[in-house]
From TrEMBL:
This is 1,4-alpha-glucan branching enzyme. Residues 126-531 form the Glycosyl hydrolase family 13 catalytic domain. PANTHER family: GLYCOGEN DEBRANCHING ENZYME (PTHR43002). It comes from Nitrosomonas eutropha. InterPro entries: GH, GH13_cat_dom. Transmembrane segments: none annotated. It comes from the Bacteria.
Amino acid sequence: MASNLLPLSILGAVETNGTVSFGFWLPWVSAVDGNAVTVKIIHEHDQFLQEIPPREFPMAHSVRSPYGDFWSATVPIVGTTPANPGSAWGTAGRYVYRYQINNPNVGILDWIIDPCAREFGVGKLSAFTLGYQPYNWSVAEANWRTPELSNLIIYEINIAELGGDLERTRDLMVYLSDLGVNAIEIMPLSNVAMSVDWGYLPIGYFGVDERFGKRSDFQKLVDIAHQQGIAVIVDVVYGHTGVDFPYYDAYNRLQYHENPFMGPFAKDYFSSFGKSTNFGSPFTRDYFFTVNHHWLEVYHIDGLRYDCVPNYWDGPFGVGYANLVYETYQLTKNKIAQNQRYWNRFNAGAGTSLRLIQYAEQLEGPEEVLRTTYSNSTWQNHTFDAAKAVARGDQRRLADWGLSLGLLGYPEQENTNGDVITKTALQYIENHDHERFICNFGLMNPDEAGNPLFLKGDRSHWYMLQPYLIAMLMSKGVPMLWQGEEFGESYFLPDFGAGRVGLLRSLRWDYFYDSPGQQLVQLVRKLLRIRRDRSQIRRGNYFFFNDWDRYLSKRVLLFARYSNAQYTLVAINIGDIDQSVPFWFPIGGDYNEELHGGDLGLKGITPLQQTWLKVPYHYGRIWTV
């Protein structure tokens, strides 16, 4: 079902030569029924001063196709006289605004935000910048190309915890590039009502939340990331919103029994503290399609990670998730065909898959969503769950872990409607939703009051992380690190409760410098270099040696990554003692040990002849012919 782009030139706050126009679609809210809508505006410098209230301007009602009732106003600001002495009204800078509805049945409804605002103020305030200047992209941006899917190494980040804001976070792009990362996945940047929040209850979608910075701050981060060879993927939340999202908030307070935008659609996982969006409504579909276009066009992002897909998953032929990723793919293809500037970053040549990154968080059916939609990747918890069970002592899950590292059952390519799409899934043992992996090896509480929110993993067991990092970063698929994983960040995260999202867990950069941190960083750097240098690890075949007697009973896991004559054997040992195990290499020759080299290499290997391998405890070996 085709989606249409909203006309953003008349929506939200749009400035032209010192005059700002406002446009707000409010279906079913009509002047004929006695409604009146106003916009309240105040300069950012005045907003906390008791003698300077916001200025209020009436909005005119009209009916505009295709969504109906439309409210608009044109407000001259530059050159106008402030209503109060000392006010900053009329000067350049940021202004905050909100809408108010006067309804004959329920009275005055204040504090309604703009669903198409490009900027935001504190809490429930929309914003615009008088004298805003578009960002000037660097010359290098025109030559940027999004990396091929199989080459991606992703680092998930929370801006508030990694750097604190966009300016300090962009300074870390050099560090991430040096680490070996070539993509970042950023937790939601959209506006929320709270100052400390993960961002998964958005109330504004078309811009960067003020707690992180301004539009240009994020554009500069993307620009610098691209200069460092790092793609930028943004986590987007479309299946549900916060309760202050205007298309829920306004209609709820108006006491309407129906809603033109919100309502039950598929699953409803956020019903306790958020509200579901109804993709059965063309307005809803067009809105989020326009959000995608806006972030790709204005911010030059390389892809989208779609949060909580079950909330808008109505199957591969539905009007929800599947339709949105299809429409976004076709939009990108058309932009490339029209030779629109900067969209060529997704073009890998005729007959090849677009490099637009679209992946789902569809943990209920990751294989299905990958096989049947235009997604080219997906989160999947199979590997995570198996690794966690093994780390907690369930040796029976070793085989599950070994199989999941090879993404058994996941497609590698689909040809749909003539579009050839390369496919794979993400591999991780840590992400924002869970406690740090080291917590599986022991917990400690440094808080004298015993508050469980201060629990953390025992970093004296840092060495037990090593085989899990080796396995994950050598596995099939796209590996993802969660910020600080490379130096052993150790906090515990409860499975539920406000403490998950209401506590700011600033990254413990001091861990980078202690002995465990240095050992782990060195290992991760080596592993990412190996992955970068070996095409058989990035995109080759995978074979798991599922033999209980020879390997798994000894807590050893062996798998091969290979392509033609390129062959790498990965051996890890999660046990407490060194192990020697037999192996029969299919390809003869000299094998270099990739982690440490030297005498650990295997010389003169004869094909299919038994070779004994020594695998150190809580560690591993990587041999490449």
